[in-house]
Protein backbone atom coordinates (compact mmCIF):
# COMPACT_ATOMS: atom_id res chain seq x y z
CA UNK A 1 0.00 0.00 0.00
CA UNK A 2 1.33 3.43 -0.95
CA UNK A 3 2.02 6.06 1.67
CA UNK A 4 0.18 9.35 1.67
CA UNK A 5 2.17 12.55 1.25
CA UNK A 6 1.23 13.45 4.83
CA UNK A 7 3.26 10.41 5.96
CA UNK A 8 6.39 11.30 3.94
CA UNK A 9 9.46 12.83 5.53
CA UNK A 10 10.85 16.08 4.07
CA UNK A 11 13.57 14.08 2.32
CA UNK A 12 11.04 11.67 0.83
CA UNK A 13 8.96 14.60 -0.40
CA UNK A 14 12.01 16.18 -2.08
CA UNK A 15 12.82 12.85 -3.77
CA UNK A 16 9.19 12.46 -4.90
CA UNK A 17 9.15 15.98 -6.33
CA UNK A 18 12.39 15.31 -8.23
CA UNK A 19 10.99 12.06 -9.66
CA UNK A 20 7.68 13.67 -10.62
CA UNK A 21 9.50 16.61 -12.22
CA UNK A 22 11.49 14.19 -14.37
CA UNK A 23 8.31 12.33 -15.36
CA UNK A 24 6.56 15.61 -16.17
CA UNK A 25 9.43 16.71 -18.39
CA UNK A 26 9.39 13.41 -20.26
CA UNK A 27 5.61 13.58 -20.70
CA UNK A 28 5.89 17.15 -22.00
CA UNK A 29 8.61 16.17 -24.48
CA UNK A 30 6.46 13.30 -25.74
CA UNK A 31 3.43 15.57 -26.12
CA UNK A 32 1.42 13.72 -23.47
CA UNK A 33 -0.50 16.74 -22.19
CA UNK A 34 -2.79 14.90 -19.76
CA UNK A 35 0.04 12.93 -18.16
CA UNK A 36 2.06 16.13 -17.85
CA UNK A 37 -0.86 17.84 -16.07
CA UNK A 38 -1.26 14.93 -13.63
CA UNK A 39 2.42 15.04 -12.69
CA UNK A 40 2.32 18.81 -12.23
CA UNK A 41 -0.67 18.49 -9.88
CA UNK A 42 1.11 15.81 -7.87
CA UNK A 43 4.14 18.09 -7.59
CA UNK A 44 1.93 20.87 -6.22
CA UNK A 45 0.45 18.48 -3.65
CA UNK A 46 3.87 17.19 -2.56
CA UNK A 47 5.17 20.77 -2.26
CA UNK A 48 2.12 21.65 -0.15
CA UNK A 49 3.12 19.05 2.42
CA UNK A 50 6.57 20.66 2.64
CA UNK A 51 5.01 23.97 3.68
CA UNK A 52 3.63 24.93 7.08
CA UNK A 53 -0.13 25.58 6.70
CA UNK A 54 0.06 27.87 9.75
CA UNK A 55 1.93 30.35 7.53
CA UNK A 56 -1.35 30.99 5.68
CA UNK A 57 -3.99 32.95 7.54
CA UNK A 58 -7.76 33.11 7.25
CA UNK A 59 -9.21 36.43 6.10
CA UNK A 60 -6.00 37.21 4.18
CA UNK A 61 -5.48 37.52 0.43
CA UNK A 62 -2.66 35.82 -1.48
CA UNK A 63 -1.41 35.78 -5.05
CA UNK A 64 -2.17 32.61 -7.01
CA UNK A 65 0.80 31.04 -8.79
CA UNK A 66 -0.13 30.60 -12.43
CA UNK A 67 -3.05 33.06 -12.31
CA UNK A 68 -1.68 36.61 -12.48
CA UNK A 69 -5.15 38.13 -13.00
CA UNK A 70 -6.61 36.93 -9.70
CA UNK A 71 -5.83 36.74 -6.00
CA UNK A 72 -7.18 34.22 -3.48
CA UNK A 73 -9.02 35.23 -0.32
CA UNK A 74 -8.82 32.55 2.39
CA UNK A 75 -11.94 31.97 4.47
CA UNK A 76 -10.46 29.02 6.36
CA UNK A 77 -7.71 26.42 6.29
CA UNK A 78 -8.18 22.66 6.32
CA UNK A 79 -4.87 20.81 6.38
CA UNK A 80 -2.79 21.88 3.39
CA UNK A 81 -5.82 23.33 1.60
CA UNK A 82 -6.91 26.96 1.71
CA UNK A 83 -10.67 27.34 1.25
CA UNK A 84 -11.98 30.60 -0.10
CA UNK A 85 -12.54 32.36 -3.39
CA UNK A 86 -10.74 34.01 -6.27
CA UNK A 87 -11.03 37.75 -6.67
CA UNK A 88 -9.87 40.31 -9.17
CA UNK A 89 -6.95 42.59 -8.35
CA UNK A 90 -9.61 45.19 -7.53
CA UNK A 91 -11.06 42.87 -4.84
CA UNK A 92 -14.21 41.80 -6.68
CA UNK A 93 -15.23 38.22 -6.03
CA UNK A 94 -15.00 36.03 -9.16
CA UNK A 95 -16.23 32.58 -8.16
CA UNK A 96 -19.73 33.49 -6.98
CA UNK A 97 -20.94 31.88 -3.76
CA UNK A 98 -18.96 28.68 -4.28
CA UNK A 99 -15.88 28.08 -2.15
CA UNK A 100 -12.80 26.72 -3.83
CA UNK A 101 -9.94 24.77 -2.25
CA UNK A 102 -6.37 25.42 -3.35
CA UNK A 103 -3.31 23.55 -2.10
CA UNK A 104 -1.09 26.00 -0.23
CA UNK A 105 1.76 25.46 -2.71
CA UNK A 106 -0.37 27.33 -5.28
CA UNK A 107 -0.42 30.44 -3.11
CA UNK A 108 2.18 33.14 -3.49
CA UNK A 109 2.87 36.39 -1.68
CA UNK A 110 0.37 37.81 0.79
CA UNK A 111 -1.36 40.98 -0.41
Describe the structure.
This protein is 32% helix and 29% strand. By secondary structure, it is α+β, with helices and mostly antiparallel strands. A 5-stranded antiparallel beta sheet has the order 4-3-2-1-5. It is globular. The termini are far apart. The relative contact order is 0.16. The model has no long low-confidence stretch (mean pLDDT 95).
Number of strand elements: 5
Q: How many H/I helices?
A: 2
Q: Any idea what the CATH architecture of the largest domain is? A: Roll
Helix percentage range? 25-40%
* Pattern of helices and strands: HHEEEEE
Question: What is the residue-averaged pLDDT?
Answer: 95
CATH superfamily of the largest domain: Hypothetical protein YfhH like domains
Number of domains: 2
* Helix and strand composition category: alpha+beta
List keywords for this structure.
111 residues; alpha+beta; SH3 type barrels; 2 domains; 5 strands
Brief sketch in words of this structure:
The chain is an alpha+beta fold and 111 residues long.
Spell out the blueprint of helices and strands.
Layout: H1 10-29, H2 33-48, E1 61-64, E2 67-78, E3 81-88, E4 100-103, E5 107-110
Antiparallel strand pairs: 1-2, 1-5, 2-3, 3-4
Amino acid sequence: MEKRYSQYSQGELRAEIAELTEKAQKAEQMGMVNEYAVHKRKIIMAKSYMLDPKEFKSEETYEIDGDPDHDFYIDYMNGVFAWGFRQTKAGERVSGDEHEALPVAMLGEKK
